[in-house]
Design goal:
The chain has 196 residues and is of the alpha+beta class. The protein is built from seven helices and nine strands. The protein has a five-stranded mixed beta sheet, sandwiched between helices.
């Protein structure tokens, strides 16, 4: 019986490691994709997905050290979680990227942006950050959770190129433009290879 109990504990621990970000105590990218799959199947009209990126995080991390960077990521996660109802899903999906999924009526994106952009005290350092934000209506998603995450990531890349901190809203045109740029790049590589 003891061995069986240990095996159950091991399986629970492995499941926790596979779907949970230990640093920020949030679901990870894989778990977020799984949740998106479930949401997309239901096709709710009022659900939205958002993705946030901490601008200049690598500069903070490199200049002040990875431990301080980790503390900052934890504080951002705590602040983000405190701004949202328990029914809203918050995940850490990249080194300095967070994702949110929930009913639009339960998420105030202006408040999130304003609060996350407030200074953070981390180990006697007052740190100011800015977040880039992308938004997408779940009903606009085609495909599965991975496709949805890909589309919101493309939108976030657009938001990161902007000078201001206004959210960028997903459009199918963004995905189409990105696909065309990649195809042109591939075609350019093929024709350059033909001359070698």
């Amino acid at each position: 019986i003891a061995v069986g109990f240990q095996n159950v504990q091991l399986l629970l621990r492995l499941n926790q490691m596979a779907f949970h970000d230990g640093l920020c105590d949030l679901p990870n990218r894989q778990m977020f994709i799984s949740v998106l799959n479930e949401i997309i199947l239901e096709r709710p009209e009022d659900w939205v997905v958002a993705m946030l990126d901490v601008r200049r995080f690598s500069e903070i991390n490199d200049a002040l050290g990875h431990q301080l960077g980790d503390f900052l990521l934890q504080k951002i996660a705590i602040r983000l979680r405190s701004l949202l109802k328990a029914s809203v899903i918050v995940a850490r999906v990249g080194v300095d990227q967070y994702a949110i999924a929930g009913k639009r009526s339960e998420i105030n994106f202006d408040e999130i942006r304003a609060e996350l952009n407030q200074p953070y005290w981390v180990n006697s350092n007052l740190l100011r950050i800015q977040v880039a934000m992308a938004l997408m209506e779940v009903r606009d998603s085609t495909g599965d959770g991975l496709d949805c995450l890909k589309n919101i990531t493309l939108t976030l890349n657009q938001a990161k190129r902007q000078a201001d901190d206004q959210p960028v809203h997903y459009t199918r045109q963004l995905t189409e433009n990105s696909r065309r740029r990649v195809e042109l790049g591939i075609a350019g590589c093929r024709s350059a290879r033909a001359f070698v």
